[in-house]
Amino acid sequence: MRMIKSAVFLICFLCGMNSIAQKKAVLPHGMVFGDKPKGIAPVPATKIETLMGRKIRQTTAIRGTVLTVTKEKGGWFMMDAGAGKTIEAHFANYNVTLPKAITGRTVIIEGVAQRQLIADDLQHFAGDTVTGSKQHKVKVNPKQRITFEVRGLMVDK
Predict the structure, then answer these.
(1) Strand 57-71 vs strand 76-80: parallel, antiparallel, or unpaired?
(2) 36 in any annotated domain
(3) What confidence score (pLDDT) does residue 116 get?
(4) Structural domain of residue 125, as residue ranges?
(5) Residue 151, C-beta contacts closer than 8 angstroms, at least 6 positions apart
(6) pTM
(7) What's the domain count of the chain?
């Protein structure tokens, strides 16, 4: 009887030690959040403004490094766009939860890139009609001119 109790204790102890020794789950290459990006060859995030040219919206896939995850629920994050610029991105589907462990990883995202415009750019149909004393003084932050609505994200590196 004592031998059975010792064997049960030993098995429970080893199982407990095994679960304690396990590391946090790392995000493996190819892990997908949202829909899997497909059909569009990704361009570097540093070249998205050049790719868009004068377009306001562009459906595309880009590859870049995640700087920070600002909100896990809804998948809000900042991506490096080179030269000190950032791309503010979020998932179109709010049910996606993006873990903070993705910070610093290279990812491929697919969705719609959009340029932020204001009427001060002499684009009065941009939707922002600044009038009065603020007219011609309101500026868009040049470091964050592009926003991205993500349909799918895949961990690349």
Answers:
(1) antiparallel
(2) yes
(3) 76
(4) 27-155
(5) 34, 35, 37, 91, 92, 93, 110, 111, 112
(6) 0.67
(7) 1
